[in-house]
């Protein structure tokens, strides 16, 4: 596969190979830096395909309401002048939420993009979470099938490095091409199954399944367990019985909505069910 194929053709083959049942979106953001709770998004790009093979895209510069450091401009080449007249994230958030809703997602090294988007939505008080979506990360798949930058992945799975990098609009195209190249090379094998849920499941730790998008609560050894902080590894039920104040502390802090929903239910004595059993019931 070379870069001569159109992005639409790449997306259509991805949709057919993965037998998608929901819209599949490839998403990328550029930012003022890497501190999730401090830095801001300056560009967001999304291209998506539906099960009916309808393709839509957006590419939006965002005014971060802060200066972009010179060293960051050197990376993505988005200047302060370029974003000066762009909408703020708060102004664009409702339209972006609508564009993202109901999708499964592909993103290269996607945890950063996901956490940054959720932090921005929280900051402007527009409810949004990736918790109901399957998330596929070609970086993690590459590490799995060949035990590294997006450009290297493109050279390996597309046949050439992209001419331009560190622009969200260019990166989403390269990310889509990389995933399709991975599926053409390894798809349908035990290492790389050809379905959205199965690929998304490969993101999880061995022996554990994330119950929220951020992986802060995981199902391990037959119970939902906290995966961060001083009670890491402890079941939600035990924390509720002995340290309920810690769960109340989580609710009072700036954590994602999907995590708070699980914690709120735990405080009421309702704990997550085995995700594999839930999945089997839907088969």
Features:
alpha/beta, 8 strands, 283 residues, disordered C terminus, 13 helices, single chain, three-stranded antiparallel beta sheet, five-stranded mixed beta sheet, Nucleotidyltransferase, domain 5, 2 domains, 44% helix
Question: Mind explaining what this structure looks like?
Answer:
It is built from 13 helices and eight strands. The strands form two sheets. Strands 3-2-1-4-5 form a five-stranded mixed β-sheet, with helices on both faces. A three-stranded antiparallel β-sheet has the order 6-7-8, with no helix packed on it. The longest helix has 19 residues. It has two domains: 195 residues, 2-Layer Sandwich (Nucleotidyltransferase, domain 5), CATH 3.30.420.10; 74 residues, no CATH class. It starts with 6 loop residues before the first helix and ends with a helix. Helix 1 crosses helix 8, helix 7 packs across helix 8 and helix 10 crosses helix 11. The chain is α/β, with parallel strands linked by helices and 283 residues long.
Question: What is the third-level CATH name, the topology of the largest domain?
Answer: Nucleotidyltransferase, domain 5
The biggest beta sheet reads: 5 strands, mixed
Order of helices and strands: HEEEHHHEHEHHHHEEEHHHH
| SS elements, strand count | 8
Domain count: the total is: 2
CA radius of gyration is 19 Å
Give the overall shape. globular
Supply the CATH class of the largest domain.
Answer: Alpha Beta
Mean pLDDT: 88
**Count the helices. How many?**
13
CATH superfamily of the largest domain: Ribonuclease H-like superfamily/Ribonuclease H
């Amino acid at each position: 596969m070379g870069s001569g194929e159109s992005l639409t053709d790449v997306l259509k083959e991805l949709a057919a190979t993965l037998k998608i049942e929901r819209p599949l979106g490839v998403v990328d953001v550029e930012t003022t830096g890497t501190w999730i709770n401090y830095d801001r998004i300056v560009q967001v790009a999304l291209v998506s395909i539906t099960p009916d093979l309808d393709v839509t895209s957006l590419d939006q510069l965002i005014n971060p309401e802060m200066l972009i450091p010179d060293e960051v401009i050197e990376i993505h080449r988005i200047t302060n002048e370029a974003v000066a007249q762009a909408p703020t994230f708060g102004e664009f958030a409702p339209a972006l939420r609508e564009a993202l809703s109901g999708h499964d997602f592909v993103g290269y090294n996607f945890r950063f993009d996901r956490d940054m988007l959720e932090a921005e939505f929280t900051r402007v008080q527009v409810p949004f979470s990736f918790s109901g979506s399957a998330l596929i990360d070609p970086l993690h798949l590459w590490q799995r099938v060949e035990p590294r930058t997006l450009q290297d992945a493109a050279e390996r799975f597309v046949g050439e490095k992209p001419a331009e990098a560190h622009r969200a609009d260019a990166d989403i195209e390269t990310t889509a091409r990389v995933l399709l190249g991975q599926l053409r090379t390894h798809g349908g094998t035990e290492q790389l199954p050809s379905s959205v849920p199965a690929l998304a499941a490969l993101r999880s730790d061995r022996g554990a399944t994330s119950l929220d998008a951020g992986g802060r609560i995981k199902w391990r050894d037959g119970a939902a367990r906290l995966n961060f902080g001083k009670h890491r590894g402890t079941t939600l039920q035990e924390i509720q019985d002995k340290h309920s104040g810690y769960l109340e502390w989580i609710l009072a802090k700036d954590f994602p909505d999907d995590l708070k929903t699980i914690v709120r239910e735990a405080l009421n004595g309702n704990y997550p069910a085995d995700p594999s059993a839930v999945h089997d019931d839907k088969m």
